[in-house]
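Re-run with default settings, no changes from the original entry. Doing this only to confirm the output is reproducible before filing.
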Amino acid sequence: MPILTAAYAAILGLLLVALSARVIQLRYIHQVATGDGGNVRLARAIRGQGNFAEYVPLALILVLCLELLGQPTWLIHGAAMALLAGRIAHGICFAWCESAPRLRQAGVILTFAALVIGALGNLAAVFSGAL
């Protein structure tokens, strides 16, 4: 039973709701129904939401596979916590800040770390079982 993945997926799901609510809020404030209306702040929030939607699904699949393949709990938590921390940092940077390059950098590094940890952990599980 992939309990750890379920917990992290639930938290990430709430983060997506927060990012989406921020986009909706900015659309309402700036009276923009579609697109970004040329508003830089709204464009950043939309991009932050989109970036989340681009990276989180594959990263969660990798975490799920780690769990299903019986990889150590510390490895599953390591990948999932890096993903969560990275997406929080990146989300704050894009949805609520004018400019926060350090948050953006941290978000990217942590998200990529989650992907690499997940990918290598899965490869290790697959190849150790195949040999």
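The radius of gyration is 17 Å. Helices lie at 3-30, 40-68, 73-96, 101-130.
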